[in-house]
Amino acid sequence: MNALLIAMVCLVGLLVPSLVAASDAACDDPRVLRFALIPKTNAQKQQQEFRPLQVELEKALQRRVDITTAPSYGAVIEGLLNDSIDLAELGPASYAMLLDRKASVSPFAALSSTGPTGANVLGTYRSILIVRSGRGLAGVSDLRNKSLSLTDPASTSGNLVPRRFIQQQMGQSIESYFGRITFAGSHDRSIEAVRKGMVAAGFVSRTRYDEALTAGRVGPDDLAVLWQSEPLPPDPFVLRNRLCKTVVEKIHRVFFNTEPLRAMLRARGAERFIPVTNADYQVIREMFSER
Description:
alpha/beta, D-Maltodextrin-Binding Protein, domain 2, seven-stranded mixed beta sheet, 12 strands, globular
């Protein structure tokens, strides 16, 4: 082998690792996958609910998966923006907020519900307005200048939809219509604030309210529902776009392999995860742009 050929072989040997490194640098392959949940109920309870999913993800990815319930919706939004969170369950409004801030994330899964023909379809939920029973409050017109509990500034059913409803129904902003507004931080805390009489009314997720009834945290005659919204698209699970393709593919396979997650899904009133795209949340993005 002449000197020129030897030099070329050596050069290729030096370049190949560089090319591989450049390819690896084009995506993120985290040693620990960071999975965040928006606060809906008790943090420990939420993390326990997702334990089967955590186990399956760790098997598929061959790495640790850390699941945390964030202290606020905003904490999840910021974590996705600064790349300190890789995978998250969001509310539809918090997803719209991320897109408004040019975040590089994509929705890929949401829980199913059972359609009228028995088929699995994309799940929905509603925003509801609750008050204590027996207080002479029959409609939103009885709540002028009274106190109100909202969930979180980035909540769909606990902030975005209520604001739109009050503006359309009463012709006023929610701040000018109600006498005092507080953010409870989660749907459970908002429900509890109404039940205890700390506020006159609250906007919460119908799903969380029904769970509180089933669990006995709220008696059937404690609260009354004065209004409910049209069906809303379900909470999306999102991934950072910079995650390596192999990581994303493995995560998708775990989410859409229903059998190992059957008990977890049924505990949440679903049969499976269904694929979603940005188009499924267009109605929420339109609401968000109307603010």
